[in-house]
Amino acid sequence: MTEKMDRRVRKTKAQLREGLARLMQKKSIKEISVKELVDEVDINRSTFYLHYTDIYQMLQKIEEDAMQNITEVMKKYPIDPDNSDSVLQFIVQFFSIMDNDRDLCLALLGPHGDMAFVEQIENLLAETFLKRLPEKLPKNDPNIKYPYAFILNGCVGLIRTWLSCPVKESPDQVARLTYHLIENTIQGYLNMKK
């Protein structure tokens, strides 16, 4: 019986997430009411309140789950700066997470998304990924913040473009493109410093 109940709970939460993603692509979270969300997914308000206290708590839970997924990928695919395969594997897995929940990620990263969440992802990537990747870059370079910012913002922009594009490239294809763009940026910066 609990398995059937768990399946129903998962299905209801998935419906709510999908509905919230659709609504967030049109308007900000501040403009979305519980009534509007439950009407969007055709469930009762009481069902919503069985799982969440309000829209903000629901969004917070979704963001926490997303960060947990990204953190698990980072643990499972640690980055070794001397092994380009490890970097590429991490990027592929990161894009796979985004691909699995494409509409929701697009909503979170889009114009009506949560900028604090975007910043949280940027900080996590900067701390875990960018800091380990360029062992080749001089650590005492006061201008190193510029290629870091360029790479980070470029990656977020690339993710947004990929998620919103009607032609769906695979996570592997986009990960390889991202990896090469990062490598080219680093190499271009190093060449400029010579």
Structural commentary:
One of its GO terms (molecular function) is kinase activity. It comes from Blautia obeum. Residues 33-52 bind DNA. With 194 residues, the protein is an all-alpha fold. It has a single domain (4-192), classed as Tetracycline Repressor, domain 2, CATH 1.10.357.10. It is 74% helix and 0% strand. Helix 1 crosses helix 2 and helix 4 (55-76) packs antiparallel against helix 5 (84-100). The protein is elongated, with a radius of gyration of 19 Å. It starts with a helix and ends with a helix. The relative contact order is 0.10.
Please give the structural blueprint:
Blueprint: H1 2-24, H2 34-41, H3 45-51, H4 55-76, H5 84-100, H6 102-109, H7 115-130, H8 145-164, H9 171-193
Helix pairs in contact: 1-2, 1-6, 4-5, 5-9, 6-8, 7-8, 8-9
Structure, briefly:
InterPro entries: Homeodomain-like_sf, HTH-type_Tx_Regulator, HTH_TetR, TetR_C_Firmicutes. With 194 residues, the chain is mainly alpha-helical.
Under CATH, the homologous superfamily reads Tetracycline Repressor, domain 2
Tell me the structural class.
mainly alpha
Total domain count: 1
Q: What's the CATH topology label?
A: Tetracycline Repressor, domain 2
Straight-line N-to-C gap: 68 Å
Mean pLDDT: 85
> What share of the residues lie within helices?
over 70%
Low-confidence stretches: none
Number of strands: 0
| Rg (CA only) | 19 Å
CATH class identity: Mainly Alpha
Largest sheet: none
Portion in strands: under 5%
| Helical run tally | 9
The H/E string reads: HHHHHHHHH
Global morphology: elongated
Domain HTH tetR-type: 10-70
Keywords: DNA-binding, Kinase, Transferase
Protein name: Probable dihydroxyacetone kinase regulator
Organism: Blautia obeum
